[in-house]
Design brief:
A hairpin with a 2-residue loop joins strand 15 and strand 16. By secondary structure, this protein is an all-beta fold.
Length: about 350
């Protein structure tokens, strides 16, 4: 929902993953209501550690006195650390993200990575406001350590698309990486959609070692496959690096569930006049349905419309009034998202 009072509000969510040795970063996530509710940072297909590492909590928010701080816990509920309140980190809605790092022993990393998945929970004290800051009070986790690997080790880093889509034929992209100590000149990339095997892609370009002069990862278009309305499962896994058995299988496979008609992720307003305004719904699929009305109106009682493009104009607004607007994705055949 977006309030229209001739001001522009934009909520952005960002995510990135980079690799030095092993380096993963979870999505920057806003703390939900009610105050004190947690967020999680999950790392999939993590390699076994060869050494101790570092867990970094990256955050922004209402953290400016001794009772306002964030705590981070491992997947066993053991506290890893917390932000330092009052004086050292006096963080009242700062424009840039702050961070604090904690050591992770090889014993802890080995335990966490045993199933190939590591999850952290970040919990704010109930005194941390979830609405005070722009875009929000929130956090993300960065995990770094030297991986235990072998000479020929290919890994699947991510399934990149489809993420926002409608049912039908869609391209599937994934990113693979060389995690071994040998350069890779070939690797098989296997993939499935909803349990149906798709043609294997043989990648034959150089994947350098981590820290090498050339790229150690590559994003591939695996092909096009049919996707049904609702939930779809995409599985991607590497095999036969340099034509031999992979020396580490824990990082080979990623499985994701993607859903048609994903809801828009944010709304921006622009070009305000006395009686009209442009609305842009970012991150939606298909056509954009919208409904608007006086501030506080109940969904179903407002004025509705549909746009084939992400940006549309609402006109005929009363001067000096404020309005709420909701948007959703519409892929047709009753396949719609919830309203944002």
């Amino acid at each position: 929902m977006k309030k229209i009072n001739l001001l522009t509000f934009l909520i952005l969510f960002a995510a990135s993953i980079s690799y030095a040795q092993y380096s993963g970063r979870s999505t920057l996530t806003c703390f939900p209501a009610p105050s004190g509710s947690s967020i999680t940072g999950t790392f999939n297909s993590v390699p076994s550690p060869a050494s101790a590492g570092t867990v970094t909590l990256i955050y922004q928010g209402d953290i400016d006195n001794a009772t306002e701080f964030l705590e981070i816990f491992d997947e066993n509920g053991v506290k890893v650390g917390q932000t330092i309140p009052s004086g050292i980190f006096a963080d009242q809605c700062k424009a840039t993200l702050d961070s604090i790092s904690f050591p992770a022993s090889i014993a802890d990393l080995t335990s966490w990575a045993a199933d190939g998945i590591i999850t952290f929970t970040v919990t704010p004290q109930t005194t941390v406001s979830v609405t005070l800051c722009t875009p929000c009070s929130g956090g993300q986790v960065k995990l770094e350590y030297a991986p235990l690997t072998g000479p020929d080790d290919a890994a699947t880093t991510s399934v990149d698309s489809p993420r926002v889509f409608c049912a039908g034929m869609n391209d599937v992209y994934a990113t693979i990486r060389n995690s071994g100590t040998n350069q890779l000149n070939s690797v098989d990339v296997n993939w499935e959609v909803n349990g149906v095997p798709q043609p294997v892609v043989n990648y034959t370009m150089l994947l350098d070692t981590l820290g090498g002069l050339s790229a150690s990862s590559a994003q591939l278009l695996l092909g096009t496959a049919p996707f049904i309305t609702g939930s779809n499962t995409v599985k991607v896994y590497t095999s036969n690096p340099n034509g031999v058995a992979d020396t580490s299988n824990v990082n080979d496979t990623i499985t994701v569930v993607v859903v048609t008609a994903a809801a828009p992720t944010s709304i921006a307003i622009s070009n305000a006049t006395l009686t009209s305004i442009d609305v842009t719904a970012t991150g939606g699929a298909g056509t954009i349905d919208y409904e608007y009305g006086p501030t506080g109106f109940i969904l179903g009682s407002g004025t509705t419309g549909s746009s084939a493009t992400a940006t549309f104009t609402i006109s005929g607004l009363a001067q000096g009034s404020t309005f709420d607007v909701y948007v959703r994705s519409n892929c047709g055949a009753n396949d719609t998202s919830k309203y944002l």
